[in-house]
């Protein structure tokens, strides 16, 4: 018979994976998972038929409640909104049953696609597509019929992947770049930018690339997305030319893709992640909002 601690250690990575994808916030996901387990600890789960589904239901409902309460803040958010960067580590491991096939569902591009869905659509989609629950289990978690959940899932998939058409569910996952391909392109990008090789830089950035900069109105950032390879290159070169004393950066595993984490005097300054397509960078995601960087411990990435 599982103890409460054994259950916590066993299910925490899965619950965090669900909450983070629902919210796009590391700190809020951690809080909700803690609250869910504290609540469950007061319940005798030995008589619960499916403890994992029960915990998923608690986490899902708390995520939806949180999204409802935060919706007004999102409406007045200054500039582009980006999810909090997640440094994959021992503290935030990928559950073993998801590690091989669903690492890409943590990418910034994927999380932004999820933001297009309603809260219930997002929950059903994640439970089915990423966590691989069957419709009967999902119905129990979200409080809808299995038939309704099947329809919600198909509608959600169509909303974020219109080209999927009538393909089977298992063959139409949102395609993301291979981690190895992304790493190679990011390394080329860093070399080109830091060496001032603009020709090389422009060769690995798509001409119609776009850069999103999330400052949340807390620090200086581009209020509107920057479009075009040349404008992006000039913007990044300008940022690099103005870095303060004590600035250093490191390549790190961010949202299961290679990204750049920068510090100033060992305090987190910004995180840059990428969307790579066809060997070139299609999108840049720059998080400079200090509220979204607080969970990054000073010196957590070696430079």
From TrEMBL:
Domain RNA polymerase sigma factor 70 region 4 type: 109-159
Alphabetical list of Gene3D superfamilies matching this protein: 1.10.1740.10, 3.10.450.50, Winged helix-like DNA-binding domain superfamily/Winged helix DNA-binding domain
InterPro entries named among the record's database cross-references: ECF_Sigma-70_Domain (IPR052704), NTF2-like_dom_sf (IPR032710), RNA_pol_sigma-70_dom (IPR014284), RNA_pol_sigma-70_ECF (IPR014303), RNA_pol_sigma70_r2 (IPR007627), RNA_pol_sigma70_r4_t2 (IPR013249), RNA_pol_sigma_r2 (IPR013325), RNA_pol_sigma_r3/r4-like (IPR013324)
One BP annotation, GO: DNA-templated transcription initiation
UniProt-listed Pfam families: Sigma70_r2, Sigma70_r4_2
Stretches assigned to the RNA polymerase sigma-70 region domain: 8-71
GO molecular function, one term: DNA binding
Assembly and interaction partners: Interacts transiently with the RNA polymerase catalytic core formed by RpoA, RpoB, RpoC and RpoZ (2 alpha, 1 beta, 1 beta' and 1 omega subunit) to form the RNA polymerase holoenzyme that can initiate transcription.
Protein name in UniProt: RNA polymerase subunit sigma
UniProt source species: Paenibacillus pectinilyticus
């Amino acid at each position: 018979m599982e103890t409460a601690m054994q259950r916590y250690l066993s299910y925490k990575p899965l619950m965090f994976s669900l909450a983070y994808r629902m919210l796009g916030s590391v700190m809020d996901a951690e809080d909700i998972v803690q609250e869910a387990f504290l609540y469950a600890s007061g319940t005798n789960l030995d008589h619960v038929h499916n403890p994992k589904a029960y915990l998923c239901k608690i986490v899902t409902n708390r995520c939806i409640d949180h999204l409802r309460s935060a919706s007004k803040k999102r409406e007045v958010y200054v500039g582009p909104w980006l999810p909090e960067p997640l440094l994959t580590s021992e503290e935030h491991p990928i559950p073993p049953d998801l590690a091989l096939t669903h690492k890409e569902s943590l990418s910034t591009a994927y999380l932004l696609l999820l933001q297009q869905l309603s809260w219930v659509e997002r929950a059903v989609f994640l439970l089915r597509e990423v966590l691989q629950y069957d419709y009967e289990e999902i119905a129990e978690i979200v409080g809808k019929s299995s038939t309704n959940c099947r329809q919600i899932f198909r509608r959600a998939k169509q909303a974020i992947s219109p080209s999927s058409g009538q393909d089977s569910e298992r063959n139409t996952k949102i395609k993301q770049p291979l981690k190895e391909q992304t790493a190679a392109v990011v390394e080329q990008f860093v070399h080109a930018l830091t060496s001032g090789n603009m020709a090389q830089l422009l060769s690995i950035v798509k001409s119609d690339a776009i850069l999103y900069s999330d400052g949340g109105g807390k620090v200086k950032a581009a209020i509107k997305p920057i479009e075009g390879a040349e404008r992006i290159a000039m913007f990044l070169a300008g940022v690099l030319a103005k870095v303060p004393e004590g600035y250093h950066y490191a390549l790190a595993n961010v949202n299961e893709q290679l990204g750049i984490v920068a510090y100033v005097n060992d305090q987190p300054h910004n995180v840059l992640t990428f969307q790579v397509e066809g060997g070139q960078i299609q999108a840049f995601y720059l998080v400079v909002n200090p509220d979204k960087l607080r969970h990054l411990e000073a010196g957590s990435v070696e430079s």
